[in-house]
Amino acid sequence: MKKTEQQRTGNSSAEIDLLDLFHSFWQQKKLIAGAMGAAGCIALGYVLLAQPVYQASSLLRPAAINELDALNRSDVYTLPPRDALLKIGSALESYDTRYSYFRSHEELFKPLARKGRTLEQSFEIFNRDAITLIQPDPKQAASLSPYIKLEITYPDTLNGVEILNGFVEYAINSQREQISADLKVIINNRLRELDGKINAARSAYQSDKEGEIAALTESDKVKSAKLKDELKALRLQLRAERDSRIAQLNEAIAIATSLGISRPTTPSSMGDVAQGGSSNLMRTEITSQATPLYFMGTQALQAERAALLKRTSDDFTDKRVSEIGKELQLLETNRQVEMLGRRTNEDLFLKNIDPLRAEVARLGNLKTDMSQLGLVSIDRLAQAPIDPIKPKKALIIGLGLAVGLLLGLTIATARYLMQRRREPWQGNHSD
């Protein structure tokens, strides 16, 4: 009987009465409040002592079409607004650009220096954790305008707004310089290409001119040689004709001498003299045959032969000789060859290079200074934040109080259970 009563007492002590537990919490309210106060003070101390961390952001959007119109209309460098935005995004994400900005603005990053590590090492940590580039998801925002958002998380010892805005401006300026350098290289390459084409046209012209001069000179030489050959043959022909005439005269003189004809006469006149006819009679002869040469008489024939024998040149007897001399004289100087050799500005005679010259002039007038080129539109500059993102004071204090309350309730519950166990043991010991 006594054993059964002890078991009932033990079972009842193992069960927890919620009302009794809450009553115990009320009795231990100072303990619970103290735990909450201690945890709250610890949280408050952390909030007051923790270094505030701020966050700033800058938003970039594509530039207006008119900002890049002059560059795109140059037909040298094409850069649509979206490509320009991506170009700037690549520069902002590039470690080389970030490190170059750091090297040129080390004074902004001096608060990052820590004992035992260099400023470069501190920048490496800052660059890895503090600067974030955000772009829209093309699947979720396909219909929206593209943008690039750059966020910086920084402690209160840094001027994060100045760093971010300066970095964005530095990246834009570096890309402007890069575009300007690329533009100069492209223009210089095209100018060299055009110069090569113009020089090739000059070489072709020079070759054509030399070929034309050679052809004209050769043609003149051929004509001159032919005329000289013709003149030589003509002179031989005239000499042969003179020799033939002398031979004819010699034969006619011999005949006239044998006939006793010393003065010019005719066959009919000779017949009348032989028949004793009147010398006052005038006759007209009509015949289809030429009068033999010996009828000229020995005096005339010998006079002609003497003149032919004394002749040193037969050129005057044929007008073709003088014509050949005239043509040879004209061939001695080719005025066309002379004018080709006297050309001073030969570029005026080059063919099909006017478009090349126009392109050279156009490229030479292109502006390569891109310092004012609007690559992107800065939709929002970084602004100084009002509140830090860390620590979150209300949340930390609230969590501290909650943890303190939970700790106090845990301690109170443990004390309540220990007290419940102690009561049955004291009752049994008194029995």
Question: How would you describe this protein?
Answer:
The chain is 64% helix and 6% strand. The chain contains 14 helices and 4 strands. Strands 2-3-1-4 form a 4-stranded antiparallel beta sheet. Helix 1 packs antiparallel against helix 14 and helix 8 packs antiparallel against helix 12. The longest helix is centred in the middle third of the chain and has 100 residues. The radius of gyration is 63 Å and the shape is rod-shaped. The N terminus is likely disordered.
Largest sheet: 4 strands, antiparallel
For the termini, the CA-CA separation is 15 Å
Note the overall shape.
rod-shaped
User: What is the chain-wise order of helices and strands?
Assistant: HHHEHHHHEEHHHHHHEH
Give the strand order of the largest sheet, numbering strands 1, 2, ... along the chain. 2-3-1-4
Task: Tell me the total number of β-strands.
Answer: 4
Annotated CATH architecture of the domain at 20-182 and 364-422: 2-Layer Sandwich
Structural class: alpha+beta
State mean pLDDT (0 to 100 scale).
83
CATH superfamily of the domain at 20-182 and 364-422: FepE-like
By CATH reckoning, the class of the domain at 20-182 and 364-422 would read: Alpha Beta
Cα Rg: 63 Å
Q: Share of helix among residues?
A: 55-70%
What is the CATH topology assignment of the domain at 20-182 and 364-422?
Bacterial polysaccharide co-polymerase-like
Low-confidence stretches: 1-14
| Number of separate helices | 14
What is the percentage of strand-forming residues? Answer: 5-15%
